[in-house]
Amino acid sequence: MEAAHLIAFNLTLLAAIASPGPAMVFLSRTAMVHGRAAGISAALGLAFMAALWTLAALVGLDAIFTLFPWAYVLLKTLGALFLIYIAWTTWRHARAPVGATAAAASGRRMFLQGVLLNLGNPKSVLFAASVLVVIFPAGLSGTEKAVIFLNHLGVELLVQPLLAVFLSSGPVRAGYLRLKPVFDRIAAAVPGALGLRLFLDR
User: pTM for this one?
Assistant: First the structure.
């Protein structure tokens, strides 16, 4: 493994983090509704689980899913139900004032929701496995796998909280407050659509 491999991997990670999927929508809404501390907690939960999926791919969890399809289906179904739950609660509170929903947030809860959101998409381990196969050479040693995992965790722990800080800043939050019902409907539609897709995709 060379430095060029890690650079390519990190560029791929940054593109994945910035992509407009359920994780980004969840982080954006959490930071803008509940503030900086809750946003950082959510970011840490997302970061932790994303890095764990890469670790799972490095140790061969994708092969386990291939050998035991029921385990993949079970995790995918539970993840789909969680995403649908997130979508339903976000949609239900779209017109509620920020103060009415902000009180329900806590750092621990937001961290756990971030973990569960990324845990709920077992395709993440398959994506991670594909990226690893494309970027890194075959026959990685245990030390090299540890470096890849720690590198991923480091990138996530740096970038995700920075996004939370930016999204919870005054101008961004003020813009969100002006369009809260519209933004929350969109924020509900993204995880809801992915949840339905995961649930129906057998």
Answer: 0.71
Per DSSP, helices labelled H in 60-179 are: 61-67, 69-92, 98-102, 107-119, 123-135, 142-167, 170-178
Do the Cβ atoms of 11 and 18 come closer than 8 Å? no
CA angle 188–193–197, rounded 5-degree value: 155
Residue with tokens 């739950």: 85
- Inter-residue contact 128 to 53 (CB < 8 Å): yes
CA distance 89 to 25: 14
pLDDT tens digits for range 190-199: 666 766 776 6
For 99, other C-beta atoms within 10 Å of its C-beta total 8
Residues, the chain: 202
* Stretch 107-130: mean pLDDT: 79
Q: Which residues contact 72 (CB under 8 A, 6 or more apart)?
A: 65, 122
Query: Which tokens in the block code for residue 62?
Result: 């994708």
Token pair for residue 136?
């890194």
**Rounded-to-integer distance, Cα 67 and Cα 88, Å:** 34
Q: Name the nearest CA neighbour of 160 among 3, 16, 34, 8.
A: 16
Token representation of residue 63: 């092969």
Q: Which of 19, 52, 54 is nearest to 136 (CA)?
A: 54
